[in-house]
Design a protein that fits this description.
The structure is a homodimer. By secondary structure, chain A is of the alpha/beta class. In chain A, about 45% of the residues lie in helices and about 20% in strands. The radius of gyration of chain A is 20 Å and the shape is globular. The interface between A and B is large, with 37 and 37 residues.
């Protein structure tokens, strides 16, 4: 049996990009990887059969949603999340913090944890670092995330520092609880906060690295700050993180963001963008975004993306995809989601390939040139 | 090339059940057949990839919906409905009459046709027998249905007769227009009306048979009349219809109805029941219906139907299907629809097999005994 959870196979000579592998109880994940978001135990509109067809190796599931419904204890009783949803690939769970904090009217934070009301039925709940760990242990996810405070943007340095210190305090409590109670195969990631302040980012990363987590996430980005700050924070944070542990840029992002993240040494991404946008009729193609409801596609018999090999692009026309969207047909969500995920996973596949060939920056340049040509 | 549109391969020695084949421009359809309903050019929640996996050879599409959106002329311009929706199997279109008549507040009937308002935007429209033919010719469906008046239930004999006479008048106009303008491969079915009056049913069937259609439908049933009357009308109507033409019982029905119809000589069925019920969480199994939201399935790790070989039953538990339904996840509609259609198509497959073995009544008895046991 392998000892290492993660290994770097090849790194770029041009930048900080690297290709690696994460070894989980539920399969090997090639990195850099994009993780489709499976909020409530399903990647919305995607049968797992399709996710498998897409070569998906890891999905993200939301602790908050599963805790509320159907409940982590029920899932544990039924053998854990993998078994409950019938998914044999790897699962990363978030901590629940992000969802709890984003319902501003429904929550109250103190040092112990967060009191909040369910968005489903208004019932009262309390999540602490320990509770978040316990839920994720019950779910049995392969990668467990620390319960952190996602500092909102903008925040003064003082507020950001206080928030970061809370995240660090909670990190200690998470790790302690996790190590005592985890399932043997589970891994825990620390999350770096610090808003857009270099010194805070560096300090937070250093302290977490001292605690020795299985991997590290860069959190609190893509929350409204300018792109250049997001890239800068990613850059300086990644520099502090150890080479031999996976780095995960949370909640990111656009196709451009994937390239910028990889270039700065990020190994893992997740975002609702490909799936949520799909349901709203916003489709990603090699020549930029397509808003499928646009009247100009009414009689357009061409495929969504002539350069895409997914079954949607091989079989269906833009005119039909538009018709399905305009008619609010469920098939619209299915086909759009399939295509967008194919597009995202295909980018990652090609990124890995380009790094192996040590031509990542060249691929990035070519991809973005075409992507920004917008000739749809 | 074959000359005949339909052939009977084997008939039961016990009853009027028969196995046959319909030869269309878009493939051969084994009968008795159940046609999934693809209202607006999509069988709701079903990628065509799944319909193919299910062995679906023919689907029904709704003239009314496609006429309003995206429009039959647009579809014609794009090469017809098969090409527009990317479906290489056969397509039967209804006449649009049923939908037009069912919007009682929105329509006005006279001898020329029906004035109605769109349920989408309230715009005014007029469909006549000729217009219905033209729309279906534009769509390019393999089987075109006469524009008839679906007599509502209950109706006095006098009203039913008047309505039937309108249907017969329109049948003449439909056939005339169709023969002059059809695409070479298209076939036209006459529709027998007559409410629950034997003499009217027989008269209507006889007159239509004299006009010589490619097939015959039994319409105006399953509209609220008692089951025994529905079966009786099917029975006496089928007796008048020619042996060598397919018979189609419109809008029917439950699993039991499929058996009762086949026993009385019906070759084709369609119904929204498997697909619509699926989206509402009502699932068909070999042991009766399962209402998946029921609390008793909360921790039920068993498959929906242990005797079903569909991928839903092989992979997912009732507990997960319940969770998806309770969370209003799109995947709920997808998996439920797949299973229900599998169940319906599997019944038809087994019915055909049993007729070939001349043991249809035995199979019917066994199936219904188990189906009514309700041990879910």
């Amino acid at each position: 049996m392998r000892k290492d959870f993660f290994e770097v196979i090849k790194s770029s000579s041009e930048c900080k990009a690297r290709v690696g592998r994460i070894f989980t109880e539920h399969g090997v994940v090639d990195t850099p990887v994009f993780m489709p978001v499976g909020t409530a135990g399903t990647v919305k509109a995607m049968p797992f059969e399709f996710l498998e067809q897409l070569g998906t190796k890891i999905i993200l599931a939301n602790t908050y949603h599963l805790y509320l419904r159907p409940g982590d204890e029920l899932i544990s009783e039924l053998g854990g999340l993998h078994k409950f949803i019938s998914w044999n690939g790897a699962i990363l769970t978030d901590s629940g913090g992000f969802q709890v904090f984003s319902h501003r009217d429904l929550r109250e934070i103190d040092e112990k944890g967060v009191h909040f009301k369910s968005h489903i039925d208004g019932s009262s709940h309390f999540i602490s670092p320990e509770k978040s760990m316990q839920i994720q242990i019950n779910l049995g996810s392969d990668v467990v995330m620390n319960f952190d405070e996602c500092t909102s943007f903008p925040a003064t340095e003082k507020i950001a520092e206080k928030s970061m210190n809370l995240t660090l305090d909670w990190a200690v409590r998470c790790k302690e609880y996790f190590e005592r109670n985890k399932k043997s195969y589970q891994k825990l990631f620390g999350i770096v906060q610090g808003s857009v302040y270099k010194n805070l980012r560096i300090k937070c990363a250093e302290e977490l690295v001292n605690m020795d987590f299985d991997g590290y996430a860069i959190g609190g980005l893509s929350v409204g700050e300018p792109k250049n700050l997001m890239y800068e924070m990613t850059d300086i944070t990644a520099d502090v993180l150890p080479w031999d542990k996976p780095r995960y840029l949370m909640g990111v992002g656009t196709p451009e963001d994937l390239f910028e993240g990889v270039e700065r040494g990020v190994d893992m991404f997740d975002c609702v963008m490909p799936t949520r946008n799909a349901r709203n009729g916003c489709l990603f193609t090699s020549r930029g975004k397509v808003i499928i409801k646009h009247a100009k596609y009414k009689k357009d018999e061409s495929p969504l993306d002539p350069d895409c090999s997914c079954f949607v692009c091989r079989r269906y026309s833009k005119a039909y995809l538009r018709h399905l969207f305009m008619s609010s047909e469920i098939l619209s969500s299915i086909l759009n989601t399939y295509h967008n995920l194919y597009f995202y996973l295909d980018i990652m596949q090609k990124i890995r390939h380009s790094i192996k060939l040590d031509s990542f920056l060249n691929f990035k340049k070519e991809f973005l040139k075409k992507y920004k040509s917008k000739v749809n």
